[in-house]
Batch of 3 targets.
Target 1
Amino acid sequence: MINTGRKNLLQIVKFRWLWMACSALLLIPGIIAMIYSSVTYSNHAPMKVGIDYTGGTILQYGLEQKLENSDITKTRNSLQSVGIENPYIQILNVNTEQQNNTESNISSIISIRTKFIDKDSNDQDKITEQLQKDYNNPELISVSSVGPTMGKELFKNSLIALTLAILGIIAYLSFRFRFDYALAAILGLVHDVLFVCGVFSILGLVYNVQIDGLFVTAILTVIGFSVHDTIVVFDRIRENLRYYSKKMSFGEIVDASVNQTLARSINTSITTLITLLALYFFGGVTTRDFVLCMILGILIGTYSSIFFCSMLVDFWNDKKTAVQAA
Amino acid sequence: MKNKILMFWFIVLIVIVSTILIFVKPTKLGLDLVGGSRLVLEAETTETIAKITPEVMSRLQIAIEQRVNKLGVAETVVQQIGDKRLLVEIPNVTDLKEAKAFIGETAQLEFKKEGKLPDGTPVWISTGLTGRDLTKSTLSTDASGQWVVALEFNADGAKKFADLTKELVGKPMAIFFDGDLISAPNVNEAIYGGHAQISGGNSGFAYDEAERMVNLLNAGALPVPAKIVEENTVGPTLGADSVAKSQKAGAIGLSLVMVFMILYYRAPGVIADIALVIYSLILFALFKTIPVTLTLAGIAGFILSVGMAVDANILIFERTKEELRAGRNLFTAINSGFDRAFTSIFDSNMTTIITCTILYLLGTSVVKGFALTLALGVMVSMFSAITVTKNFMHLVFGTGELKHPALFGLRKDEIGQSYEAVETKREKARFGILD
């Protein structure tokens, strides 16, 4: 028997159906949200998309005062009264404790999203003037603007990047491992990406969280991490097969391999999560959603490499032996 | 043992060089951290130029570069992306609105004369004399003290101007700037010598207005109009704020990871922490030397890579612990631990590098920064885990039996449990196992 260094084995093979059900439970709410969003949103996107993909302008102003949620409606009405069509307003409150070691005295940020402000439009001046009337000393701290054609192109490029990344990984894994391992790793990453996208779809519906160019970056990082984790487990299965394939069944080897790599899988996730959580709580407001996406990805990636991918490999192996026996 | 010590001094050398580089080289911070503006301009076709050729693009780039240089800020970037776009980066700009107007203006100066459409409506028609016929323009005042823009034509332009004024004696000649009528004075007599003045019409020029026109004329007109299709501007306060917060987040993240490693892995954890510090030094020195422009996303990539850098150490320590549980001596356990963990480390890092390469090739500049820092991080982490950690482990623990299992976070009764991995002869030789 393989010495796994632990008394109670985590049983992947035996509780196969439980883990499948568990994955389904994790994925289904997000998938429902994505379907619901595609049907209800006017652009039929499964998630709420930001200006990077739709085109538009976001102006952010720093304010010294704290804002209430009621200020959103107030500002929206006041901007509409000067002819800004459909402004979308968000308020980001800056944690004051964090502020101590920085020089700025901004305590909240008001972010205004409008349609793309062209060179000839004076909408930006109108908004600035109106905010100066409504609040004390608003300071324009950032402008992001994406033209409508640019948005379409960025979207296309993101899809190309995702597809290429997946193809690249399949190619590498098929070269280093057997094709069915590669397929299991890919299904694992699809599992992880679906989960993260699902959560962001729900966040979009409930909290209006929008995805942008950084979201795709985060998803690609999640893909990298997910496969990274899975490989460590598969590498162990491959190694154990070399030594024990005559003495133990494939299922036993899978279980033992998962257990041998369990401490590593969890510890790596912990250290990565520590750094990400530090970024989430102490880092800038602008990268918060980006970091959240990676946190979710790492949690689900760890789960899938332990329970989902190894279960798949064993499942296929069973099917194969059943066919051979018959 | 001798090459172990050589290796140790090699690592020390790298650390010293990295530290010096960190102090000597400046850090290149991205626009989102220092504040500044990143614009993407897209060339538009006109009636005369129906296709944006590479030649048109390079002329546009030169014209935009000249304008950006006139803003008087250091480290600006004007770079062509794709077939018809220019990326313009302007750090530390104070009046962005002004700068944007200045960069985007086509600056087409045209002299026009009166004409009539077939149905009799009067219109201004082109004369063929434009801003391209100028050698330079200067800011000046006229007899009444009003600001005027003085023009000096080149030989060709001087001739055209003389012919035109001769033709138009007693009639108005209109001066258009980017399609706007500036003034339309009556021509009193033919003007020879290639000098002319533009006054601001009835209302006259304000100083700023005249100065801007002079600058634009001297920088040269854009061959085709260019519109801004993407803009990212970050004010200096937000930038400084982001730097401070990222530093804090990085420091907290790094220290917590270090504490975790010591609590869980004990003595090897301390070594992993030292390796982690060396890793950070090397990586930061690399960032400064290449140089990599650090953006907010790039810093996130850097901090994330710290979490991932310990992964290699964790893989190795877990393997080493397993070997120790099997009752191997320290030297063998460390060697085989490293050797067996290596394929996992290599394969898993390769996939991260694959995704980073794709991000780098296809991504926008923000994404590129993230991909580059993460990929460099992964590569340096492989070096630091495989050379630094391994070297220190051997130097610290030597070759003896494991006397104090607690150093590795193991219990005494765990040692010497059955372990059936049967190594091949080649593996035995590689791990240094003696039968």
Target 2
Amino acid sequence: MKYQPVIGLEVHVQLLTDTKIFCGCSTTFGSEPNSQTCPVCLGLPGALPVLNKKVVEFAIRAGLSTNCSITPRSIFARKNYFYPDLPKGYQISQFEDPICQLGWLDITVEGQETKRIGITRIHMEEDAGKLVHGDSDMNDGSGVDLNRACTPLLEVVSEPDLRTSDEAVSYLKQLHQIVTWLGICDGNMEEGSFRCDANVSVMPVGSSTFGTRAEIKNINSFKFVKQAIEYEIERQIDLIEDGGTVVQETRLFDPNSCTTRSMRSKEEAHDYRYFPDPDLVPLVISDQWIERARRELPELPEQRQHRFMTDLGLPAYDAEVLTASRALADYFEACVAAHDNAKAVGNWIMGEITRSLNDSGTSIEACPVTPARLAELLKLIDNGTISGKIAKTVFDEMWKSGKTPQTIVEEQGLVQVSDIGAIESIIDEIMAANAGQVEEYRGGKEKVFGFFVGQVMKASKGKANPSVVNELLLTKLQG
Amino acid sequence: MKITVADVEHVARLARLELTPGEKELFAGQMGAILGYVEKLKELDTEGIVPTSHAVPMENSFREDIARPSIGLEKALANAPSRAGSFFVVPNVIE
């Protein structure tokens, strides 16, 4: 039998606020355990949570950017369960009436048509604390650090519209791009700022009834999302083929073995007894508020890609690469503003800049060659001062020394030689020294032409203007 | 509304409460009476009335995203039954 996988993703997006969602404790990562806590996030009796307005602003931004409708009146609920990283015995979340509902993203998997993936809801909630295991001081106990407790999260729940691991990765990458672009999340998957749970089931092809799903947790990279989903699909198909049945359960992805395993401890009673949190008053979002948020949204990746293609004439591929992040797109536009040749600027950013950033592990925000300097360099190529080849040498020097391209060209005497007399005399010398090859060329062996170009460029230390060299060589060789 | 001892046991387990057989019987009766009262309220016509999530007529109480000092490690850990360094310590919960 053939099987059809059905996948839905739940993504937790940690918001880039300075303080927690319900108290004024700092959200700085990596501080001394339990140093960023107060009665609210420690869950002490009598403490009153008060909602951080920025969390609401960020949630609205996320909703509008994923085509959701914003719920006019939304409420917080208590999700009740016991776990040592949850000091109150309940998590403040949203259940009925989440802040954003019914949106979508259009995704593209290479070689396929664009596909619309539904977003069921986006809700606000607080994160739990962190557990630490295996420390010898703890007498085989587990350590609890509540610095992360009460950190603001958005949970973005997709419809079960995804059918392959590639679609899941594409959806996840797009969501990641949007939240980092909006500046509401740092997107760091290793540190858990952007994490994903996958609901996976399989059904016979042609069936309209979904199979029983397993929820896979602990997937903290795009690569693992693909591996975890593919393993789980195989596991469920094998199980069914062998006459077994899939049970609804939570499974943990193990990146070392690329497998998933059952988390039996979480089996117990998914009975969270949600009820409206009496400590937090309803959240009412007016149309004016939504409209203001909409006006303040930055131009989104898709819109910017489109503009790069229509206004700047970039090919689709270039437009996509150059909008990989907002900072990269900003860098590109700053260069184009200083040097009106989008295609050339794009090529340099996708080529030399990207290579140097990768080699040195630098982010575009910290690029040592500013957009203005890159534009200066491209101008030197355009006005014939240096060749494209020499420009790469100059670029490497700019990267290392931070000097202007003009200075480097002057200091190292890299100005391109276009002077006909000077190039002619080099050509004459080389033809005299290689009389055999001259005869070969004249005898019809035109391939030798490349040899002469190479020799001339070498003799001029790469500074001869290549088009002048070509022209003069042709005339002289033909004698 | 009839609440059974099994219902009481389920709710007690979710709340991590240990009850004696006598208490289970007692609470089954009391919970049944409370829910019976709610059943009675259901007879009212509530057509067109927004469900009440909060008893106080208030909305949009916010704080700005401005950090204020935390209470400090020692105060935070002051009542911990067990601690190691800067951590609270609880019985092992490895998955």
Target 3
Amino acid sequence: MRLIPRTLSRSPRVGRLAIQFGMAFAIAMLAVGMIGFSAADAWVSSRIDASLRYHTAKYLAPADGRGADDAVVAAKILDWQRRKVLSERTYVLFSRDGTRIAGRLDIAPPHPGFSDVRFLGGGRSYQLGRALATRLPSGSLLVIVQHSEAAASLHALLPGVVLAISLVALVMGVSATFLFARLTASRLAETQGAADAIAAGDLSRRIPTERLDGMFAVQAESLNRMIDRMEELVRAQRLFSSNLAHDLRTPLTRLRGTLARGAADGDPALSGTFERAERECASIIAIFDALLRLAEIETGRHPSAMGTLSLRPLIEDVADTMDPVIADRGGTLEVGRLDDVAITGDSDLINQLLINLLENVATHTPAGTRARLSLERDAGGAVITIRDDGPGLAAADLARVTRPFERGTTASATRGSGLGLAIAQAIVRFHHGRIDLADAAPGLEVRVRIPANDSPRPRAAADPVAA
Amino acid sequence: MRFLIVEDDPVIAEHIVAGLGLHGHETTLAQTGSEAILVLDRRPHDAVVLDRLLPDINGLSVIDHVRRQGNTVPVLMLSALGSVKDRIEGLEVGADDYLAKPFDMDELAARLSAIARRNAPRPEGSQLEVGRLQLDPSSHRARYRDASAALNRKQYSLLAHLMRNADRLVTRSMLLESVWAYSFSPTTNIVESNMSRLRTALLGLGCDPIETQRGAGYTLRSDRCA
């Protein structure tokens, strides 16, 4: 059983999400800003063009029934200059050959129609202006240039405004995403707590829905329905296994009785057959008992006398018990270092765990195998190690053999229920520990870790979620 | 001895009656819980084999009823419910022993004899003694005449249990329960291997009073310790 610290990877994920959202928001705002600016710019330009057209028409309007000729226009320009009105417009009249007739603006004659021109404004710096050049019937060219302060300052504002908009949008986007992520995480926290409890085996837990809304509530309800169904299935399976116990034990009892009677008063020639049949019957019963035992431990129905359990005397006792068994099969059992460690456990289950593991050594290793049993205390708690110098297991078998009915590929000649290691695994899990099989080169090393009862229990299920 | 068998399955009931007959016991058969209560009122029995799941009332209620009437007849509960939890429930309600189906006939007979004799008190001093064979709890040593041998914890407990039940058949599963306190069935010959070590130690003292009953268990014969 591996416990993965699950709060580690959460915050960076939210952070990256927030920055991505912030960037997207900033780009969107930038686009909106540019569109808005262009619209404003276009509007200002159209107003300038309209004003130019209006003033051109005013200058060229026929006065006293006569059409506008050079002299009239030049007079108007001179009059305007004399009045020295403060204006954003300047008037220039060019003759047909391009010489300036009236007006002070020092520019080359532009093409007829609208154009942008550069001119020296106030004799100091070049300025940009909008020009409308109109050809008079005489061939002269009237040019009206308008320099718009508004348009110029609008252009000057552009980079600053765009940058400001982007920065504000970035900050707002990031904070909005962080806020959203926090709100989401706080809603999911309860869901996660319940899911962890359920994973730890508590199928009675449900996700509280009263404080959830929208899609969170919908999802929680759907998860709760799933757990309802799981609980139903587990209950059905428990009922099935206890019914199976009753329904199979009775015919097995009859079978055993019938075989015994047959062996007792049957034909002496058949007694061997009866004996073999009885042995088969006994192995069916053994598998059946082991299966029920496994189910009992895995579903937590074993009435455990969980209490403080000192492992050292228990291991010494098991070593005394198994030493002659292993010796009778030609092996040896050594007891290595034994530290003093106490765990919270069920002595019957821990006995079965150790007996199963040592029986494994006794049945699956050849004569002459030496096994060593030791108990050490480390930071995580008790470490029980059983190491032998037998043939070991193929790498592919190491993970496989703790599953029910799996056997090592080389051990098929030896019969067992095929549940020994699965039961060992279930017992270790029941004690919040873990079992690891490793290649001891040569041989097999089985390492069982169980938290000591003075060390804090691994809090996988109960950890509050740090959002 | 006379035993009352309370079992509703005719095949199993017949098997028990025939098997106990072979061991030289007399039996009365009751098929329901209420019938069992009536029979026990009328006639004393040495022990009762009680099926847990009966057609009328639960075996647990039968024990409860019998015990409340002040009847201390030893009861062996026989059940298809074989989990540790079921077993504890049976013993808590007042059963003297609990055997899960399917069971071995010799096992049933041995356990019945053991609980039937349990009413006869045995002296249990600090010094266990059968004939001239002695067991010293403080030093974990066995003594016979002038010789003595050290025993390990398991050998000591094994010998102590056999001495307390001298001249009675003790089965392997009874030893696993009382000497090892295991509720599971080991797949190797734990009892045989440890017993053989004990017997080697006793042979060294010049006295091996343990007799193997083939396929059934062991008996410590007091006449061999003289």
